[in-house]
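hiii so my PI (J.) wants the whole complex modelled not just the main chain, which honestly fair. so below is everything: two entries, each one labled with what it is. i double checked the lines twice but i was tired so who knows lol
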Amino acid sequence: AQSVAQPEDQVNVAEGNPLTVKCTYSVSGNPYLFWYVQYPNRGLQFLLKYITGDNLVKGSYGFEAEFNKSQTSFHLKKPSALVSDSALYFCAVRPYRAAGNKLTFGGGTRVLVKP
Amino acid sequence: AAGVIQSPRHLIKEKRETATLKCYPIPRHDTVYWYQQGPGQDPQFLISFYEKMQSDKGSIPDRFSAQQFSDYHSELNMSSLELGDSALYFCASSAPGTGGTGELFFGEGSRLTVL
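here's the output for the full assembly
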């Protein structure tokens, strides 16, 4: 069975500073990896995904993530955080060629960007 | 662009009552997913449908049932409601031909409160 771990419940960062949200995964075979963001009382919004190819993927709103197979990690990064980036971030995994297309989510990391 | 539509957005029920949530996927999306998100929790997969057939099943209680109709909209029926069913219920859809690589597009959610 697949699983996702987000070791930090909350990340605090000053506006303009780099932001990193950590994610590690466990899955049989190659993973499909996703990042979503959730604002209060809203649905999850897709940020980016890794399927294959270049380990560095770029997504919406200036976010990027680096896939590291040896460390089974897929950390989300943004070079310069904005106050509006304050939200709940979820990492998710789907195994390659898994039966069904469901995503398994991590526990989420709350990001607080202070002015 | 059209998004996933969920109704109702808010629902208050008493214990042991029944509730029905509706989901209208993005046009031409062929797969619908239901997730349950408890307070401060990550979304938990309940069930999914592909081309109107159940494609995967997660932690959906026996008291719950769901189906996808000929117009691709889906309904989640919940009976004998319990206090623990209070949560945000998300519907998501994915585009055809994307297999496991496609991202899920989430609705804004239906918040169920059981008193």
